[in-house]
């Protein structure tokens, strides 16, 4: 098993980040072209805790390295990921856990992401970890290669993910500012 971890501080409030999270795979993010579909499976609010739980199926298009395609004899160009997210408004945390569905008999990838407010109130900390386990029987060398390849892919995608999410956050802030200004103009016109 190999572990990837990443921590980022965003200069946006938790409210801004947790709202923008729902747009991170949309047209504002030019760094998420590999995500070709996001389907919501279920969404519910726990009446006792107020926690919003959402389950989604994410379809990605990412080409696997040629040597992996050769070893397993398949293209592996499209994959599916199950994601469950929990927005806790009382604790002001957003936690997402995901699991690969495609090729899960060959490799197990479990990822956890948490967004939580920093003490300043104007920043949000993003903590990401992924546990990658290749399931290739006794072939230690192949297992290590697969795990190393996927850790490297996580590192590359973490950079793209941060760049793309920063753009989504910028666009969200502009849209919210414009909406707030429009609402203020409407209030002024009603007076």
Describe it for me?
- This protein has one domain: Alpha-D-Glucose-1,6-Bisphosphate, Chain A, domain 4, CATH 3.30.530.20.
- It is built from 3 helices and 7 strands; from the N terminus they run βαββαββββα.
- The chain has helices at residues 14-20, 66-72, 140-190; strands spanning 2-10, 35-45, 52-61, 78-88, 93-100, 107-117, 124-134.
- The longest helix has 51 residues, at 140-190.
- The chain starts with a strand and ends with a helix.
Supply the key terms:
alpha+beta, 3 helices, 7-stranded antiparallel sheet, elongated, PRELI/MSF1 domain-containing protein, about 190 residues, Alpha-D-Glucose-1,6-Bisphosphate, Chain A, domain 4, single chain
Level-1 CATH class name: Alpha Beta
Name the beta content range: 35-45%
The gross shape turns out to be elongated
Name the CATH homologous superfamily. START domain
Mean pLDDT: 88
Number of strands: 7
């Amino acid at each position: 098993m190999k572990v990837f971890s990443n921590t980022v501080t965003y200069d946006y409030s938790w409210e801004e980040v947790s709202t923008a999270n729902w747009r991170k795979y949309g047209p504002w993010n030019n760094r998420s072209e590999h995500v070709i579909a996001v389907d919501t499976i279920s969404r519910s609010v726990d009446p006792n805790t107020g926690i919003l739980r959402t389950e989604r199926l994410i379809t990605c298009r990412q080409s696997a390295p040629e040597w992996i395609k050769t070893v397993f004899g398949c293209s592996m160009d499209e994959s599916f990921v199950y994601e469950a997210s929990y927005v806790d408004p009382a604790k002001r945390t957003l936690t997402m856990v995901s699991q690969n569905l495609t090729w899960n008999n060959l490799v197990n990838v479990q990822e956890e992401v948490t967004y939580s407010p920093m003490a300043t109130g104007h920043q949000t900390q993003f903590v990401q970890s992924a546990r990658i386990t290749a399931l290739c029987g006794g072939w230690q060398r192949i297992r290590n290669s697969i795990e190393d390849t996927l850790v490297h892919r996580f590192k590359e995608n973490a950079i793209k993910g941060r760049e793309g999410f920063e753009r989504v956050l910028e666009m969200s802030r502009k849209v919210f500012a414009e909406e707030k200004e429009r609402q203020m103009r409407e209030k002024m016109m009603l007076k």
